[in-house]
Amino acid sequence: MASALPASIDETAARLLALDYVAERALATTAFLALKLERPLFLEGEPGTGKTEIAKALAAMLGRPLVRLQCHEGLDLAGAAYEWNYARQMLEIRLAEATGADRERLAAELFGERFLIRRALLQALDPPDGLPPVLLIDELDRADEPFEAFLLEVLSDFQITIPEYGTVRATAPPVVVLTSNRTREIHDAVKRRCLYHWVGFPDAERERAILARRVPGAPEALSRGIVDFVQALRAIELYKLPGIAETIEWTRALMALDAVELDPATVDDTLGVLLKYQDDIARVQGAEVARLLQELRQAAAPR
Ligand SMILES: Nc1ncnc2c1ncn2[C@@H]1O[C@H](COP(=O)(O)OP(=O)(O)OP(=O)(O)O)[C@@H](O)[C@H]1O
Ligand SMILES: [Mg+2]
Fold first, then answer.
1. What is residue 202's predicted lDDT score, i.e. its pLDDT?
2. Above 70 in pLDDT, residue 161?
3. Is the beta carbon of 127 within 6 A of some atom in ligand 1?
4. Probe residue for ligand 1, chosen from 52, 138, 183, 198 as the CB with the greatest number of ligand atoms within 8 Å
5. What is the pLDDT of residue 303?
6. Which helix (DSSP H) or strand (DSSP E) does residue 254 occupy?
7. Which residues are in the AAA+ ATPase domain (predicted)?
8. 50 lines ligand 1 (CB under 6 A)
């Protein structure tokens, strides 16, 4: 059953937290406003920092279904919004020819409900149960630029015009979340229709809170060490910095190895959970890991 929209920023943050999503204040504010003003939420940011996850959390929080459109190169109208079922149309024409059915009537029916294949965008605007879902348009930067032009109608008017069929307009707008990893800039026209938030890496306090939620059994000292190490790693110039997803994975990995604290050998051997480029691993493995751990130990030591 659908739940009411949150009445305040605090309530937004609290309800997300109850679902183990630890939102920073600015994100809770933007999400609250997006819901209240019925505007799409545009999230851009570092990989593995909770962009996709918040759409799932919002759907759970509002008791709405999640409709997900995963963008990719070559994504077009047929993949994103609707498609005519040509095979079925052909079959119907053949049948009609064989049985001598009324041509006029058939022609009128061929572009009707029965032959329309609904993809994510159309499903979100015209949901089967009438309950407006959360529509996640994920990784928009992976789609080709012309696709964005098509999204404009959906984002500003919550409608899609199908030439042979008519305009499908949402009776109640879906909650829309768009994400981008910024491998390219998204067009201003899209951004202008949305509320924008940059999702950066969390500070140590929030990252610890996320770990406490996502890996509840992790020993306190280990979590603290992990977060401090990952935070220090993000200050190094690497090709690809570890996101929250990697911090969580690493914690699980270290727990699976029964580690109680970070030591150079264990860190070196498990770097592949945190870093996914050989150049990055080669850069920190050994001396750099030892240096970072030493520094963190000194910083943590009572003065
Ligand atoms: N604020 C948060 N609170 C709780 N968990 C989080 C938060 N941010 C990220 N996570 C955890 O990190 C994982 C990765 O997040 P998510 O998949 O949303 O990242 P993303 O930003 O979409 O990354 P990508 O750009 O690679 O798709 C989630 O499954 C979730 O467990
Ligand atoms: Mg994602």
1. 97
2. yes
3. no
4. 52
5. 62
6. helix 244-256
7. 37-237
8. yes
Q: If you average pLDDT over residues 43-64, what whole number do you get?
A: 97
In this predicted model, what pLDDT tens digit does every residue of 73-86 receive, in sequence order?
999 999 999 999 99
| % of the chain residues with pLDDT over 70 | 100
Cβ-proximal residues to 301 (8 Å cutoff; 6+ apart), any chain: none
Nearest-CA residue for atom 12 of ligand 1: 245
123 SS3 class? helix
Q: Report the distance separating Cα 67 and Cα 174, nearest Å.
A: 10
SS3 138: strand
Give the residue-averaged pLDDT of 207-235. Answer: 96
Q: Where are the alpha helices (DSSP H) in 132-219?
A: 145-157, 188-192, 204-214
Q: Using alpha carbons, select from 285, 274, 283, 284 the residue that is nearest to residue 251.
A: 274
- Choose which residue among 53, 201, 207, 250 to substitute to test ligand 1 binding: the one with the highest number of ligand atoms within 8 A of its C-beta: 53
Is the CB of 47 inside a 6 Å radius of any atom of ligand 1? yes
Q: If you average pLDDT over residues 264-277, what whole number do you get? A: 97
